[in-house]
Amino acid sequence: MALSVPCYSPSFRKPPEVVRLRRKRARSRGAAASPPGELPEPAARRAALAAGLHLRPFPAAGGRGGGGGPAAARRNPFARLDNRPRVAAELPDGPAREQPEAPGPFLDSNQENDLLWQEKFPERTTVTELPQTSHVSFSESDIPSSENTELPVDWSIKTQLLFTSSQPFTWADHLKAQEEAQGLVQHCRATEVTLPKSIQDPKLSTELRCAFQQNLIYWLHPALSWLPLFPRIGADRKMAGKTSPWSNDATLQHVLMSDWSVSFTSLYNLLKTKLCPYFYVCTYQFTVLFRAAGLAGSDLITALISPTTRGLREAMRNEGIEFSLPLIKESGYKKETASGTSLGYGEEQAISDEDEEESFSWLEEMGVQDKIKKPDILSIKLRKEKHEVQMDHRPESVVLVKGINTFTLLNFLINCKSLVATSGPQAGLPPTLLSPVAFRGATMQILKARSVNVKTQALSGYRDQFSLEITGPIMPHSLHSLTMLLKSSQSGSFSAVLHPHEPTAVFNICLPVDKVLDTEVVHKELTNCGLHPNTLEQLSQIPLLGKSALRNVVLRDYIYNWRS
């Protein structure tokens, strides 16, 4: 006989047992309601669907527990309910991708990112669709722009050249006194040196070493050994703390500018008589490139100024200097009439004033001219000149001066007070003049060159890598002469990294050409300019690099590849 226990009920269940029974009943009801071959949906998923959330379809249970049907990948139990696992039908070897469906009202973060990416880059392909090649190019700039037996002309000034080769550059070190003297004489006398196509032993070639010394020489004014006089744009930090006794001495500043004016005039006269091919004027704000007639495809003396500002262009216009903006289609400085004649700046201003008066005449006809506030003349002028200010200090602001106007530009630069800084480390210091030939007041300078031998890792161990570094203001003729020389010394195989002075890269733009020049006539007229005939032929070509400059050069089997 069973004993009766007070407050005891045979149907009592402990809480864990109650929860277990409820789960069992829910599973049995779900299995009965779902079709065969599918898993019952969890309670949390059913609650989310009841709340109106749009979820991905729950995976089928085919293949689980030994059942029939296609096998499905096991679902990650720690993933979200709306994170659909990858099924066998979506493997890379499956059918081609279909077009993406239209996005629904609710998207998860992955779907949103994919849609945004497809909108920005519709040509995107999956990794499996990439061609099976050993190298994939990621940017257009990595592709060599061209290949030829000669380099294109580059009018930018380089600050550093780094040549690398599998053959040593030891022949460029420690020149003998006789070789150094011979190189200086060859430069001063503009001696033409022609090297063989390949030199067997460069270290024993006296002719090669003398020619190397000859190609490192350039001419500079002013020459102050304790100050870096190139580049001048952005050089305040390098010049800070240097001794400058003229900064507070007006008399000394006047003497420096007087000597500089004489040197500048001497250079222009040499250029005009075609005894100097080109030269640079480097100020703390802009750089000017003067080129003799016959160079860069022009039959006139040309001067390029970059970068410029609206104030500088306005001052040049007031001095009567006619110029153009080659990179600006709608100049705004020069308007063509129906007869084809150009209007002066004064006439343009008068016409624009008449247009402004006519534009507000209708207010007077309506009798409301006093009630509506008209914009003042200054704001109208600033609005019209907004595009001029926006291109200041940019490559697009480059200015071209041609013909007799270059002489007017010479006088303008000599008398321009803003040519010299009035404060800072460059205060009172005249601009730097750079030339490939000697001129009055110039100082001979030599580019710095040093060779370095390093070990680089290769597949079979380590191999020797030889490099030659050249620093200084490297002008176009020096770049071409050095590449010709290294082509012979390195047996037609080397690579080079070039560092251009960025404000001068725009000097490579193609200028409008009125007529095609006869190459033979140009070479005959510029025979005494002091350049090698091959270098002169290259500088006579029309520039093709645009606003960019050479940055990487590779020579293989006497064929050049370059990137800009």
Automatic annotation (TrEMBL):
The signal peptide, as residue positions, is none
Q: Which GO terms describe its biological process?
A: mitotic DNA replication checkpoint signaling; mitotic G2 DNA damage checkpoint signaling; nuclear DNA replication; replication fork processing
Q: Does the keyword Acetylation apply?
A: no
Q: Where is this region: Disordered?
A: 1-44, 56-110
**Where does the record place Low complexity bias?**
29-44, 71-80
Q: Where in the cell is it found?
A: Nucleus
List the record's Gene Ontology CC terms alphabetically.
Answer: nucleus; replisome
Q: Which domain of life is it from?
A: Eukaryota
Which UniProt keyword terms apply here? Developmental protein, Nucleus
**Lipid biosynthesis among keywords:** no
Q: Which InterPro entries is this protein grouped with?
A: Donson
Q: Which family does it belong to?
A: Belongs to the DONSON family.
Q: What is this protein called?
A: DNA replication fork stabilization factor DONSON
Q: Which organism is it from?
A: Cercocebus atys (Sooty mangabey)
